[in-house]
Structure formats: structure tokens, C-alpha cells
Design goal:
It contains 3 helices and 4 strands, in the order H-E-H-E-H-E-E. With 120 residues, the chain is an alpha+beta fold.
């Protein structure tokens, strides 16, 4: 039996044949849905600017083509905080995640969701 190249098969067919695709089936979309500033905590523990995150804007969208490389413009701290969800999405997790970065004074909330990769 001649085995076709993995790129010509869907993930279920690859798994059944014990093959591994060189490209991932899913990409990840990361959307900034909210920015907060916790004034009460800032007054007790001031550091940095007295405002919400200055790196990201609500509605900003980032897409990943693989689970290892952060998209251009995404805060490195946010990438680190979201990485387990990003790996899960690239592995095929279907339900979107909502999570925030670990800046307790200026948290940014993200929607992390999978989008099916289209091959041309």
C-alpha cells in the first residue's frame, strides 16, 4: 500500500496511519477584549504609569501559525501567560478561553480561540 504525503490528509487520517503533519491543523486567534486599571491597588503599591496597559488596545487581534512563535506585537508577558491555552488550541481544543495577563494593576483580558487552518 502506498501511503500519501501527510499534507494531503486530514489530522484523523494522519493519526490513523501514524503519520505526523509538518504543519498544524489549527491556528490560534488572540483578541484583546478588555483593559483594566486597578486604581485602589495602584494607590497602595504604585509602580509604572497610573493607567491601563499602554502596549495593547481593545479589539486588537493576533494570530499564531504555530504554537511556538509569538505573533508580532503581542506583549511577551501576555504570550507567556497564555501559552498553555495557545498550545491547547493548536492541539485542537474547540472551546474558546478567556484569560488575563498577570499584571495585577493593569490586567488585560484576552479571548483565545482556534481557527481552522486553510490549505491552498
Amino acid at each position: 500500500m502506498k501511503i500519501p504525503p501527510p499534507e494531503s490528509l486530514d489530522m484523523n487520517q494522519c493519526n490513523a496511519l501514524g503519520l505526523q503533519r509538518t504543519e498544524e491543523q489549527y491556528c490560534c486567534r488572540i483578541t484583546v477584549v478588555r483593559k483594566d486599571f486597578r486604581q485602589d491597588l495602584y494607590q497602595q503599591h504604585p509602580y509604572g504609569p497610573a493607567s491601563s496597559c499602554g502596549r495593547l488596545e481593545v479589539g486588537q487581534v493576533f494570530e499564531t501559525s504555530n504554537r511556538w512563535d509569538p505573533p508580532e506585537g503581542l506583549c511577551p508577558w501576555a504570550w507567556s501567560d497564555l501559552q498553555s491555552m495557545i498550545h491547547s488550541i493548536h492541539a485542537g481544543h474547540k472551546i474558546p478561553y478567556f484569560a488575563c495577563c498577570s499584571d495585577g494593576l493593569r490586567p488585560v483580558t484576552f479571548k483565545v480561540e482556534g481557527i481552522e487552518r486553510t490549505y491552498s
